[in-house]
Amino acid sequence: MTIPYRLLLRETACRVLLAAGTDAGEKVFTARSMPSEAKQLPQITLQVPIDRGESFGRSAPGFRRVAYLVAVGKVSHSSAEKTELALDRLGSQIEYALMQSPALQGMIQQVTEIDLRVQIDASGETYLGMVTVRLGLEYSEYFELTGLPLAEIDGTLSANGNDDFADLRVTFQNQ
Length: 175
What we know:
With 175 residues, this protein is α+β, with helices and mostly antiparallel strands. It has a single domain (5-148), classed as STM4215-like, CATH 3.30.2000. It is built from three helices and seven strands; from the N terminus they run H-E-E-E-H-H-E-E-E-E. The protein has helices at residues 5-20, 80-99, 102-105; strands spanning 28-30, 43-55, 62-77, 110-121, 127-142, 152-159, 162-171. The strands form two sheets. The protein has a five-stranded mixed β-sheet, covered by helices on one side. A two-stranded antiparallel ribbon has the order 6-7. Helix 1 crosses helix 2. The longest helix is centred in the middle third of the chain and has 20 residues, at 80-99. The chain starts with a helix and ends with a strand. 25% of the residues are buried. The mean pLDDT is 90.
């Protein structure tokens, strides 16, 4: 089975963030949507919830794709100020690690957009903060056609009411 390229991008981003020494340390996860407790923070989760493709045209199936890599960093502190400072720091660490990574940048054509959002929840005993860093990662993908190659086209041409005007045969030399 072929692994979708968006998942290779996500796993590369995970390795980049683990190696970058962010405040999350070893708590960088992919394909995880479990709730987090304050004692498990800081942490980063990575997903690619959207991967859009636009066709190159009427030929072999090829697409200019944009995979939206979403890194969610979570922190917890005793005050709103400490939480916001920790979010700013973790968000910057995520953004710069991914944008300055030769491993990740070498897999794509360009970063089409960066979207960074911060949320703080003060409804519990401690302040919980979440920073979402979304990168649009553009790449090209071509799908290999499977099956038997076209060997020959056989047909009969009709014209001006003559149903047997001419025969047509085209033979392809397959490599």
